Amino acid sequence: MRYFVENARGAVLAASASFFVALIAAGCGGGTSGTSASEAGAALAPQAARVVGGGGGTVTAFNGGIADSGLLMLLLPDNLALTDGRIAGWTDAAVELGVRMAPITDAQFLAMGPATALKYAGLVLPDDMHTLATDAVVAAVRSYVNQGGRAMLTFDFGSLTTNESGVPLYAVPKSRLSDLAGVDYVLYDELRERTTGLGPVTAMRSTFRQLLVPPGKSLPYADTAAGGTPGALAPQASTVTSTAAAPVASLVRNARYLPVSVEDPGGVRGFDPQQFQQVPLPSVRERKQGTLRARVPIDYGRAIVGAQVASATRAQPQAAPA
């Protein structure tokens, strides 16, 4: 789903999984029966061959050059070791869902071109381990999507670029994939310490249903005093109390933000999202009343309190050619 921080124009969260619709269904090819997720994930990794050295600078073809309409591509930087544990996190999750996915390097993706890439199920753009992306890689991703390819864009993928000296820095004035995500995000040049915000995920009921958010995983959200939209839905976690020093009442005019830097473009190291899994599900009666059965404290980690961003903008995604 596309995550929106309430009234926050610059949240990196805005682009998380914005192209997820129909991706998993298209990538289904069955898991390995009787094989653990870790073993199967490790078996997938060798399919992404590395760049072969030498004068020719040739690149070994992805998947042995064999087109596979049921195989997802997990895009990785060329210099990332295939033994990196974060890769196993993605491949293990894919196996658990019965989805086939194999790592592909930037060099391999650039070498195959959009026409060949379209012969695979889709492209996964992972967060955290691929925050730095060259203009060439971003352009190749855009070309692939605009020609009909399916991509899953997650969190802070491609947030960073490099200057003439090769020093990593934020792309300005916004993420280079904002047009594809349909919203301007990673506005570091404008928002700086308010680039990544924390807040309720809000959308119209019809949008949540279209994104297959299960019933019971959202609540009516009508906090107009805090800029909410009557009739919209928000996740249960948006109603929990805070353990942060600032009182919750201050968030009517303020918001929480995560410290960001080129070492941590999305600010995720200052916050643990897994704790939201502990929020209890409300009963039918509690859902109708708009209340939870318990108030659950949430640890906001290194989040800071600051003024809310005054406005929000939405970009129009480029339509893929017919």
Structure write-up:
21% of the residues lie in helices and 14% in strands. With 322 residues, it is α/β, with parallel strands linked by helices. The strands form 4 sheets. The protein has a 4-stranded parallel sheet. Helix 2 crosses helix 3 and helix 4 (106-117) packs parallel to helix 5. It is globular.
Secondary-structure topology with pairs:
Elements: H1 23-27, H2 37-44, E1 71-76, H3 85-96, E2 100-105, H4 106-117, E3 122-125, H5 135-146, E4 151-153, E5 160-162, E6 168-170, H6 178-181, H7 188-191, E7 196-198, E8 203-204, H8 205-210, E9 219-221, E10 232-234, E11 254-258, H9 284-289, E12 304-307
Parallel strand pairs: 1-2, 1-3, 3-4
Antiparallel strand pairs: 5-6, 7-11, 8-10, 9-10, 11-12
Helix pairs in contact: 2-3, 4-5
How is this structure best summarized?
With 322 residues, the protein is an alpha/beta fold.
Q: Which key terms come to mind for this protein?
A:
single chain; 322 residues; alpha/beta; four-stranded parallel sheet; three-stranded antiparallel sheet; 9 helices; 21% helix; disordered N terminus
Q: Which percent range fits the helix content?
A: 10-25%
Approximate shape: globular
Order of helices and strands: HHEHEHEHEEEHHEEHEEEHE
Radius of gyration from CA coordinates: 21 Å
β-strand number: 12
Strand content: 5-15%
